[in-house]
Amino acid sequence: MRDTLIERISSRMDSDNSLFFLTADLGAPSFDALKDRHPRRCINVGIAEQNLVNIATGLALEGFTVYAYGIAPFISMRACEQLRNLALLAQSRELNVNLVSLGAGFSYDVSGPTHHCIEDISIIRLLPNIELFSPCDSFITGEFFDFTLNAKRPKYLRLDGKLLSPVYDGLKPDFDRGFSVLRQGGKVCLVTTGYATQKGLRIIDRLKEEKVEAGLIDLYLLKGCDEEALASALSGYESIFTVEESLIGRGGLDSLAANLICDRNLPARLRRYGPSGSYHFPNGGREYLHKTYGMDDEAILRDLLACQ
Known about the structure:
By secondary structure, this protein is α/β, with parallel strands linked by helices. The chain has helices at 2-13, 29-37, 49-61, 72-78, 80-90, 120-126, 138-150, 195-209, 227-234, 253-263, 286-292, 297-306, and strands at residues 19-23, 42-44, 65-71, 97-102, 131-133, 155-159, 179-183, 188-192, 215-219, 221-223, 239-243, 269-273. It folds into two domains: 1-159, 3-Layer(aba) Sandwich (Rossmann fold), CATH 3.40.50.970; 179-306, Rossmann fold (3-Layer(aba) Sandwich), CATH 3.40.50.
């Protein structure tokens, strides 16, 4: 995801002098190539995420389009006050600041809870005037680049730290709607975001082996989606299962779904899957962490089958 986005940014910077790329001392081979091509508009502010957001905001106030790149838990939490100030300023003027946040959810799995980022969806959804993009593969991340240029407002890009299987290869996302219906049918619809969409596709494939159908919606704009269209897409289901690598019951994807069910009087029951209540210190991979929080494939599959 990161490399796809940085390559699109670098290519655009060849012909567009209004773009800046900032980093909080987070590197990558694609970033090194960008820096070599555009050294005057590529700035490493050091391990200083608060300054990263402030400098990005200052450049945007001068009319530049800015990409500010850092590790997810640090850019969303260490710089939380600065993000709030950015949101305040964006209410009265155009500020094209794109916060490129790497390491969503449990993608830095073995690095432990200091590097897990399961709070950022709640934090960014709380702040007005900042859109939240949560992609599930590199293809949709690349497609989102044009949106970052044209939408002159702050955006938080929640990128996974691992290479993920293609989902949008040949499938065109609709950023006006903010979601894609990947599967239809059955009594239950999975609503997922980011890496959880990969999990949802695996679970749907397992259901097929049991001759059972279910819906799957990938919600990639967690702020700014077309809620009327989303409610319509969910209206025929008896149950909605939300799956996310974000704290549940605290303003994340599940809260978005709960509000939608309430506000639109949808008849569906809601079940939510994600980390809840505590941090987890014993070391392990991503699927180990999912099992710890009761959001592993087998647990969700079992509950889906029980709804048939």
